[in-house]
């Protein structure tokens, strides 16, 4: 630290010396020399401070009319015209600042805007031509205590630029790397429940679930005063008065949810249908603000307010602006924004036919009425290369949802099943990898002319008819695993023999054909043939630990011994 101070002193002396020499050459007065030196010094300090502050968090963008100055705030002060370069000033523990050549100004209890007004008044008392510009360069850090309904209630050090809502979000921040797995799992389940409720009510345009804490947070200050924090009102009106910036020693009490309390609601064609706790002096204009504007489908001639058992139609112009008088609201009121009558829409359903057909492309269908054979006829039928055993119809869901907890759907489906514990692994595999295909067999439909299996097509279906593969893949415990040339009407044993036969350790009874069309495992017999594109798999003998084998043999021996003893006992009794 002493080396740094010595270096700074030498730097200032060298700057002063160079300016003195330059000033003598130019004939500058001592006052001009001092001003020039101060300007260069402030440039240097400002540059260093900016570099140091770029990596620090700010929190919220501040409103000078509401941000209260405190100890260790770093301010930037410019005084025109004598000192246009900013002075970097740190607020003292007594909440005052010292302006070089002018003196000390007490800023205790003042906002940033009030501080600038005070500095202007102070400077103009010395020189009416002076004008000050004051900005916050860096917010101080404050110790605050967050209690109640947050995930991590404790004492935090956060910038004074944080509003109460930001501090609460900070206390609810979850880091999977730093919390126990059980707690992280519990938080994930809670978030998934919230997301599921939002999904259910998303299309209903109504949200009956209210969060009590958002309008009833208690803020205790060090000076003995307190304040009710209304996050919803602050955001709707863009007013930090109801969601203030934190101060030193603030105690934030986030209330837990209560069972019954008065509410107000806005529903229908608004951007945010919501139910909120009712507060005294809530008005119609504020409730409209809570909806965050209307959707494009809103019917401005059909907006109704239900209050005190009465229904009132509200007057809005074509721009969605309320043209009536504002009115106070009572608890339990509901504002419903109607929806425009939808114009009849004639949708066109299409399917795509790809692969080995004579005229591949996109075709218009009668949704859920046109059949597979109908569309194949439109496509000109199959080419000679078409391989029907591998043909399929792809059908995808219209929406794909992201699930925070991947086990949720599995557990919900398994919850009331009669499956045993041993079934869970295969059940989870089936649930994790659903097939986006239509159940149909092209061979049965087109070769065997089984019209009962002819599926009806839906909009977006993709029909794919591949060309015939020329090989079958054999793998597992065979001598020479790999691709084998396909020969029609051959069983699994033929292809295993072509692969060199069974290798040592092969479990012949568990060898299976894996169908290329749907990856179904099929047992082999003389009437079951391998198709081109199928796979043949020969598994190994299970690798059972020696201790488990001994237990198995011991159990078998015990059963045999017990059986022989029972037989011997029966023989002796019968004699």
Give the tags:
575 residues; alpha+beta; wza like fold; Outer membrane lipoprotein wza fold like; 13 helices
Q: What is the 3D form?
A: elongated
Number of discrete helical segments:
13
Assembly form of the protein: single chain
Overall pLDDT metric: 86
Query: What is the rounded Rg?
Result: 40 Å
Helical fraction equals 25-40%
CATH fold label of the largest domain: Outer membrane lipoprotein wza fold like
Low-confidence stretches: 15-28, 44-56
Total E-strand runs: 24
Largest sheet: 5 strands, mixed
Sheet/helix structural class: alpha+beta
Spell out the CATH superfamily of the largest domain.
Answer: Outer membrane lipoprotein wza domain like
What strand order characterises the main sheet?
Answer: 7-6-10-8-9
Instruction: Please name the CATH architecture of the largest domain.
Output: Roll
Report the β-strand fraction as a percent range: 15-25%
The total number of structural domains is 5
- State the name of the first-level CATH class of the largest domain: Alpha Beta
Question: Overview of this structure, please?
Answer:
- The protein is α+β, with helices and mostly antiparallel strands and 575 residues long.
- The protein has five domains: 2-52; 56-139, wza like fold (2-Layer Sandwich); 144-339, Roll (Outer membrane lipoprotein wza fold like), CATH 3.10.560; 471-538, Outer membrane lipoprotein wza domain like (Outer membrane lipoprotein wza fold like, Roll); 547-575.
- Helices cover 30% and strands 22% of the residues.
- It has helices at residues 2-26, 30-53, 112-126, 164-171, 181-202, 231-237, 284-290, 372-378, 408-414, 424-432, 442-447, 492-498, 546-574; strands spanning 74-80, 83-90, 96-99, 103-106, 131-138, 141-148, 154-159, 217-220, 226-229, 251-254, 263-268, 274-277, 298-307, 310-313, 334-339, 349-355, 361-365, 392-394, 462-465, 471-476, 482-485, 512-514, 521-522, 535-538.
- Strand 16 (349-355) and strand 17 (361-365) form a beta hairpin.
- It is elongated, with a radius of gyration of 40 Å.
- Mean pLDDT is 86; it is low at 15-28 and 44-56.
């Amino acid at each position: 630290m002493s080396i740094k101070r010595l270096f700074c002193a030498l730097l200032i002396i060298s700057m002063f010396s160079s300016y003195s020499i330059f000033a003598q050459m130019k004939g500058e007065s001592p006052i001009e020399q001092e001003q020039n030196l101060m300007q260069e010094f402030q440039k240097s300090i400002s540059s260093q401070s900016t570099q140091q502050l770029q990596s620090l968090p700010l929190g919220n963008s501040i409103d000078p009319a509401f941000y209260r100055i405190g100890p260790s705030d770093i301010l930037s002060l410019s005084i025109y015209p004598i000192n246009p370069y900013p002075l970097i000033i740190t607020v003292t523990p007594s909440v005052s600042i010292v302006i070089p050549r002018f003196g000390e100004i007490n800023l205790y209890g003042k906002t940033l805007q009030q501080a600038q007004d005070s500095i202007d008044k102070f400077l103009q008392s010395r020189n009416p031509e002076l004008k000050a510009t004051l900005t916050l360069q860096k917010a101080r850090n404050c110790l605050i205590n967050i209690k109640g309904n947050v995930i991590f209630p404790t004492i935090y050090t956060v910038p004074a630029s944080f509003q109460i809502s930001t501090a609460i979000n900070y206390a609810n921040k979850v880091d999977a790397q730093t919390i126990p797995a059980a707690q992280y799992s519990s938080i994930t389940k809670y978030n998934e429940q919230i997301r599921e409720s939002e999904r259910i009510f998303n299309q209903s345009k109504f949200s009956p679930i209210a969060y009590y804490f958002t309008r009833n947070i208690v803020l205790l200050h060090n000076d003995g005063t307190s304040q009710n924090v209304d996050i919803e009102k602050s955001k709707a009106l863009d007013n930090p008065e109801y969601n203030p910036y934190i101060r030193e020693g603030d105690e934030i009490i986030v209330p837990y949810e209560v069972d019954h309390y008065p509410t107000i609601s806005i529903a229908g064609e608004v951007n945010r249908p919501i139910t909120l706790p009712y507060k005294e002096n809530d008005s119609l204009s504020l409730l409209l603000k809570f909806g965050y504007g209307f959707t494009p489908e809103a019917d401005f001639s059909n907006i109704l307010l239900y209050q005190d058992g009465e229904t009132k139609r509200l007057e809005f112009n074509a721009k969605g602006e309320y043209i009536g008088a504002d009115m106070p609201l009572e608890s339990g009121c509901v504002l419903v924004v109607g929806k425009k009558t939808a114009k009849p829409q004639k949708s066109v359903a299409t399917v795509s036919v790809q692969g080995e057909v004579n005229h591949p492309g996109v075709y218009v269908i009668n949704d859920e009425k046109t059949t597979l054979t109908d569309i194949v006829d439109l496509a000109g039928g199959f080419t000679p290369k078409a391989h029907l055993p591998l043909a399929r119809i792809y059908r995808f869901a219209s929406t794909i949802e992201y699930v925070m907890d991947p086990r949720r759907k599995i557990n919900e489906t398994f919850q009331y099943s009669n499956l045993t514990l041993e079934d869970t692994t295969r059940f989870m595999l089936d649930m994790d990898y659903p097939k986006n295909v239509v159940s149909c067999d092209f061979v049965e439909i087109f070769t065997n002319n089984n019209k009962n299996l002819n599926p009806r097509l839906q909009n977006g279906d993709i029909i794919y008819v591949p060309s015939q593969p020329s090989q079958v893949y054999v793998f597992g415990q065979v001598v020479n695993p790999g691709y084998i040339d396909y020969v029609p009407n051959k069983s699994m044993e033929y292809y295993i023999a072509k692969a060199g036969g069974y290798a040592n350790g092969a479990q012949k009874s568990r060898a299976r054909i894996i169908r290329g069309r749907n990856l179904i495992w099929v047992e082999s017999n003389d009437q079951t043939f391998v198709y081109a594109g199928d796979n043949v798999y020969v598994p190994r003998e299970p690798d059972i630990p020696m201790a488990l084998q001994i237990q198995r043999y011991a159990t078998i021996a015990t059963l045999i011994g017990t059986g022989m003893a029972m037989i011997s006992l029966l023989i002796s009794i019968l004699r």
